[in-house]
Fold these 3 entries.
Entry 1:
Amino acid sequence: QVQLVESGGGLVQAGGSLRLSCAASARTFSVYAMGWFRQAPGKERELVAALTWSGGFTYYADSVKGRFTASRDNAKNTVYLLMNSLKPEDTAVYYCAADVGCCSVGKTPAEYDYWGQGTQVTVSS
């Protein structure tokens, strides 16, 4: 069982920045990859970034490439999503998720096994 606790969401003006954190329970040895998803009202949950726990691979959706950066701190069992140059269309509930499978980074919600509670990010214009 992997438990994920997110923090860092909030309200920010367009062009601003936020950093989301996702703290994982100690059983991260079973985690292959971590994903950051978001879901806006009336839309499907979409992957915005993912990285392997080893740090060897990182994926970004085209819509956030160059603006968002995913990273991890193995000592703290924590992954981060730094979001710069935020746009109103980035407004959504953001979730972190853990994939305990192997050996490819999943891009759909169904490929992830554990989820955080979600944190709201609102970008005002």
Entry 2:
Amino acid sequence: VQLQASGGGLVQAGGSLRLSCAASGGTFSGYSVGWFRQAPGKGREFVAAIKSHGGSTYYADSVKGRFAVSRDNGKDTVSLQMNSLRPEDTAVYYCATGRAITSTITTLGGYTRWGQGTQVTVSS
């Protein structure tokens, strides 16, 4: 399966963006989907994730209450709604999928397939 992330762009602080991750050549069904981000000069960090079964969601403390992850199984897409954006949210955002379980869903190791990333820039 290949992942395609889209929806990034330039937005002012306090604004919103909605990222989407679509699967091609396969399906998200049965897999957890995570969002990670990487700012210049920093490592890739966990942002949010949604489990395959039950749809449990997980968030980094830095985005709780501002970001929301959801999945549309009919369209085989996962979205990340980002509100109240801050300059520190500026990064390349990646979606990933894998057989992540509760203990690994917030870690890079929980995922085996990665999309190409989409740039999010928040101006102050």
Entry 3:
Amino acid sequence: QFQLVESGGGLVQPGGSLRLSCTASGLALDRYAIGWFRQAPGKEREGISCISISGGQRDYADSVQGRFIISRDNAENTVYLQMNSLKPEDTAVYYCAAERSQYCQMVHSWYNYWGQGTQVTVSS
């Protein structure tokens, strides 16, 4: 059975960094475009980054551009989201999503496979 699992969340001070991982069991991620999304309490799910199968396309939301870096290691079946210069407004549950497509989109309704999410809290 296909499963996506996020890890790496936690509590960090403003200005700090975290690296989230998205791993898969039951299928090879190298056949899937991957997106990262987040949802804060009372807010809609927001697309923040996505990466194509090859890694040649990497898109970012304006809110994280220049601070977050998405990457993938297909040999490890893992996609990463390096989050730097974290702000309190980055606090949310972070999800990864997969869709069998060469290219990615930051539209949550486009993805069919989702992880359960990992909490990121940015607070002093």
